[in-house]
What does this fold into?
Amino acid sequence: MSLDFTSDADWSAVGEAGLDEVVALRRAIHADPEIGLHCPRTTEKAKAALAGLPLEIHDSRSTTGFVAILRGQGGDNGRTVLLRGDMDALPMTEETGLPFASRTPGAMHACGHDSHTAMLVGAARALCARAETLPGTVVFMFQPGEEGHHGARFMMEDGLLGLAPADAAFALHISPNMPAGVVVSRVGPLLASANTIHARITGRGGHAAMPHENIDPVPIACEIVTALQTFIARRVPVADPAVLSITTIRADGGAHNIVPDTAELLGTLRTLSEETRALMFEAFDRIVTNIASAHGATAEAWIDDGYPVTMNDSRAVEAMRAAATRLGGEGAYQTMKAPMMGGEDFSYVLREVPGAMAFIGVAPEGSDPATNPPLHNVRMTIEESVMARGVAMHCAVAERFLVEGWG
It folds into this structure.
């Protein structure tokens, strides 16, 4: 039996009709930001906005995240689609001057997660209103701890995604540096893996006037930094790149004439494939320890477990392209020319479930997307009216997948 789609124009109208509520929720979350895996007030706001809907709510044990499951009434073809919205803020002090600016010093929604949560709530309300015609299951994943805290991984380890195993997964991320309402994505790697790298070089401190009697860890650390960049330039394929940035060097003898015993390095490593990631892991350890050894020092090198590559499935990208074009016409979707080297923990979901993430432009009206304060900036703002398009995108993609699968 064939099923008729709700028209995309209808989803656009639904998004517009619910915009005031979505904006109000976004502003409430924005004014009351929370950081990390435990965002109880944000969770409370989201759940309150979902109250009374035909949803099964299941809480995470290790975070304040939850999933809300909608089981459609329009037949069961076995398909399940997951939509994700993250909830946590960043440890930054807001400088936007907005009337609903953060009331919490040192915390700000500078990455748009307030809008992600609000749009997902709007989509849940809209899809619940059409539950009688939906021929499958929708899982709404409300996730804290995206900003480096591995919230998606924890929720998966809690078994929440196993309650209604998804066949496809989608997420939207706002961008103030893209035109308002335009959806941008690409097939394959969208965002990089992200790992924090550490090294500690131990030499022998002493008087700076007699360096030959010491083993100075400072020039050894500098040589390691240079060698790491040389390795990337000469040994990593340009078509499968890596970015390694040492962002902190610590070495303090306590006075201008004292050579310290130790020097520490801290930085970030980004790659676009698991093959280059493994290559860099091995090279980092080898370069750090062997250069130190060559100078008579010792060294430890370690890498924190980080996000994998955010890898978009071609079928899912096509689904998002088609939905964006149907909703906004030609030009409403653009292909990202190259991956971004930022990281995203939706990558954990995409490692297990075929799907895609896309950016949706929220450049404020009258602004220049190229010069707007970017994500993770204390002055970042968004065009809130675009959230209507975000709600419609969630609904259109979910409905089409439930009806057609991958087509």
Q: What stands out?
A: The longest strand covers residues 193-202. Residues 201 and 299 are 4 Å apart (CA to CA). The longest helix spans residues 274-294. The chain has a mean pLDDT of 96.
